[in-house]
Amino acid sequence: MSLVEQYKLIEFADLGDERGNLVVIEGEGMDLPFDIKRVFYIYGSDSTVIRGQHANRETEFLLVNVSGSSKVRVDNGDESAVIELNRPRMGLYLSSMLWKDMYDFSEDSVLLVLASRHYDEKEYIRDYGTYLQVLKEKEFSKSE
Ligand code: TYD
Prior knowledge:
Bound molecules: thymidine-5'-diphosphate
Radius of gyration: 16 Å
Structural class: mainly beta
Order of helices and strands: EEEEEEEEEEH
Shape: globular
Largest sheet: 5 strands, antiparallel
Distance between the termini: 17 Å
Number of helices: 1
Strand content: 35-45%
C-alpha cells in the first residue's frame, strides 16, 4: 500500500458562534473510520524532543494539535512524509503499522491523540529494524 493511502488529513467543522469555537470529532464511521477506545494528550514537550518512534500493529490514531504546533513524520518502510499540525480543526489520521515520530513541539503544544484500541504494549514495535522485518513477514504471508 502506498503511503498516501495510510494517512489522511481531516478538516473538522467549526460549530462555534459568537461565544467561541466548538469542534466535534465523532468516531465509528462519522468523522473517523474507527471507534474511539482511548484518548491521551501530550504537552510540555519542546523542540529538542522526539516522541513516538514506534509503529502499532493494530491501533489507528487521530492526532490534533488542539493548541500550538508539532510535526509528525510518517514512514511505511518505503516512503516517508512530514506533516505539520498547527490548527485545532486539523486532524491527522494514521492507519496501523505506520512508523511515526512526533517532534518540533511549540511551547504551547497540546497534542491530542484518539486511538482505536486500548493500550497494549505488546502491539507496539519500538525498534525500526524489527518494524522492517514485520513488514517483510506480512508481505511474505500475503504472497503465499
Ligand atoms: P510512549 O509510547 O513513549 O509515548 P509517545 O508515543 O508519546 O512517545 O509512552 C510513554 C509511557 O507511557 C510508556 O511507558 C507507555 C505509557 N503509556 C501508557 O501506559 N498508555 C498509553 O496510552 C500511552 C500512549 C503510553
